[in-house]
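[audit] Reproducing an earlier prediction to check determinism. Same input, same settings, fresh worker. If the tokens differ from the archived copy the diff job will pick it up downstream; this log only records the rerun itself.
[audit] input (207 residues):
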Amino acid sequence: MSKKRLTQQLPQDYQQVGQFDLNENQGLALILTLTGIGLLFGVGWLLLRSLVFLRPEYLSTENILIITGMREFWRSILLLVVTLGLMVILNESIRGSMLWLLTGQKPKLSFKGFSTHASAPECYIPRRAYLIIRLTPLLLITLFGLAAVPIVSLNFVPGVLLLVSLNFASALGDMVIAYWLLRKPSDILVMDYGDGVLVYHYDEPNE
């Protein structure tokens, strides 16, 4: 069976063989949330350590953000809110642009709580193309963020590091879905409906 191309009409010889939806598995959702929090601090710590090579001048005492009063506290809260908003915009803009380029149709943007997700619920996408769409925001934001650390103003270094850390932690679900899909046959078709993905595969006829 040859690999299928992106299509808006599911081939008749394909049937659903899997679904990944965290709404259907609250236990896994909780585990991923707690793991994501740990990943946020872990990646943040690694990025701070990397400043020795990326931006050693930032490590002087006068540059490091230390919360010693309410002014610094609210400043850190504002930094978190702005960076989180920017991360969501960048992430979904990259994913949405790739979906638009690939499908030729405007992606659907769904909102759930404080999160958003760009999807193409009317398209069936080959696994390789879908993995690229799913993981590209993580790769691009990480690479461009690290490349920006040595050149941006020292005042923006905390924001860049926080952006990369938040994006990496929030991409844990993307990485889990990617791993799950890699365990499926290479010629599957994937349909992303926002809250999860459906997987379709060629149905071998009975002899």
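[audit] rerun output stored. Observation attached for the diff report: Residues 22 and 28 are 7 Å apart (CA to CA).
[audit] end
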